[in-house]
Amino acid sequence: MKTVKGYKKSPPPRSERGEGRGGRERSTPAKRHTVSLRHFAAAGRLGNPKDVCKHFWTLCSASSTLLRRKMAGNDVSPRRGKVLTVDNMNANVKKVEYAVRGPIVQRAVQIEKELKEGVKKPFNEVIKANIGDAHAMGQQPITFFRQVLALCSYPELLDDNKFPEDAKNRARRILKACGGSSIGAYSASQGIDCVRQDVAGYIERRDGGITCDPDNIFLTTGASDGIVTILKLLTAGEGRTRTGVMISIPQYPLYSAALAELGAVQISYYLNEEKCWSLDIDELQRSLEAAREHCNPRVLCIINPGNPTGQVQSRQCIEDVIRFAAKEHLFLMADEVYQDNVYAEGCAFHSFKKVLFEMGPKFSSTVELASFHSTSKCYMGECGFRGGYLEVINMDPEVKAQLNKLVSVRLCPPVPGQALMALVTNPPQPGEPSYAQFIAERTATLNNLAQKAKMTEEILNTVPGIRCNPVQGAMYSFPRITLPERAIKEAKAKGQVPDMFYCMKLLEETGICLVPGSGFGQKEGTFHFRMTILPPTDKLQIMLSKLKEFHQRFTQQYS
Predict the structure, then answer these.
(1) CA dist list (Å): 176 to 78, 170, 172, 193
(2) If we measure between CA atoms, which residue out of 88, 18, 30, 102 comes closest to residue 59?
(3) Is the predicted pLDDT of residue 337 greater than 60, yes or no?
């Protein structure tokens, strides 16, 4: 064995020599391309060292290529597709539809990008009247709310004399209730205790002194979170025993989407468009009896004031609904997020809880009710903070324990949203520094919405082929549109619902983004669209004028 500078060179392992067990030489493809360094050493003694290097790197390259091929050849696992595909995913998720952010809104976003890139359009901007996002449409936030939230977010501002003392006191109270005196800390899953006390106090004042137990209050991530949580508790059974949930048509797509995801059965009852979208008990009865043929109706959902229809239910109507729920043994869900948005003369908001308790113990001690409110609507319009609450009445204690467990899974609702809910339910009081400004801003916002509701109804009703019921409350109009037969046929030929076809052409030609009525549900053979009344007054006037011109042009084109 040769040595180099006194060191004995060990022979390479048998595996590197290409030998199998027993010293037999293995025949491998690599063997044909292997050249011993000894040969290069000999070549170096006999020839030009540069030639040796050149041959060495050529062989290295060949060996590398061979190794890659060998590794690929030894990969016995066939190439596989995705673990999760649209064919094997949760089938219920594929049934979910949410028209408010559907295809038309997606196209509106594309058009906005095109406008920024310089693409020429017959308009300069997209007017998004598809969703009730008040601040995005220019509504100004309430000063006091933002002051307190700023103080909570950056407590060093508590030493700044620019902030009024009542705002500082509210912030100190909220921060004291937070872990580490920070709104960045988790809260209790049911919500911060002092905020739930504020909510309970608000409900008692709203309902004329009817007691509200803070333990029945659950703070939520907007009202939507509370609605879906209660529906989760109620959904059970299989086949004909599967939970059926009664929802109004037209409806807010959250409900149909949640029911599809949970696998519950949607039971549609139709509001009466000819009577300003009123609720009719005979229609509830018809819908219920038909549903009992294929599911187990357990829940009745009411939206008051209405979305997308803008109606405000009378006290008598609410009493009738409560009696119906008691008679048919249904759980009541009252979506009351627009409770401050009442505009029409002679209309007033009545909470389901207040009416329930004023009907006496026969109903107040038996009817199960969950009601919902939010910081996103009314005069606040603070959609992005995702603040909300739900109150449960007459819920079984064992079920309530399960509700507590369910909400604990999500840890807690956003703490800034909880802080905002504390301010909504406990705003500045008479005699406090911020009271006058708060009342002025609140009143101005609601008055402005009332004026725009009236203006929307009046202008739309001047257009032949459009009929709009009074916008009694909420933030939307839901007018009925008459479409020419040729337009209906062309829409169907393109695989589109006619009012989707109409709204898409409206978007492409005017930049106005509305939601087709088919996304909310409507009687067969009727067509509608939903539009918000939130744009600033001057922009709303322009939008309504463009809409009027478009409808006349559309009707002429397809007549």
Answers:
(1) 60, 10, 6, 11
(2) 30
(3) yes
Say whether 470 sits in a helix, a strand or coil.
coil
Q: Are strands 515-516 and 529-532 parallel, antiparallel or unpaired?
A: antiparallel
CB 351 within 8 A of CB 334: yes
Measured in degrees and rounded to the nearest 5, phi and psi for residue 556 equal -65, -40
Q: Which of 504, 500, 501, 506 is nearest to 490 (CA)?
A: 501
User: Is the pLDDT at 314 greater than 80, yes or no?
Assistant: yes
- Return d(Cα 534, Cα 128) in angstroms, integer: 10
250-304 confidence digits (pLDDT tens): 988 889 999 999 999 999 999 999 999 999 999 999 999 999 999 999 999 999 9
414: pLDDT strictly greater than 70? yes
466: helix, strand or coil? strand
DSSP, residue by residue, 187-230: --TT--HHHHHHHHHHHHHHTTT----GGGEEEEEHHHHHHHHH
CA distance 70 to 76: 12
Return the percentage of the chain with pLDDT > 90, whole number. 77
pLDDT higher than 70, residue 10? no
Once rounded to an integer, what is the mean pLDDT over residues 177-198? 95
User: Which parts of 8-102 fold into alpha helices (H)?
Assistant: 37-46, 49-74, 91-95
Which residue bears the tokens 């449409």? Answer: 137
Q: Give the C-alpha separation, 97 to 378, whole Å.
A: 26
Instruction: Please answer whether residues 333 and 243 qualify as being in contact, where contact means their C-beta atoms are separated by less than 8 angstroms.
Output: no
Sort 437 into a burial class: Cβ within 10 Å, 0-12 / 13-18 / 19+: middle
Distance CA 460, CA 130 (A): 17
pTM of the model: 0.82
Q: In this structure, what DSSP letter does residue 331 have?
A: E
From the CB of residue 26, how many other CB atoms can be counted at a distance below 10 Å?
13
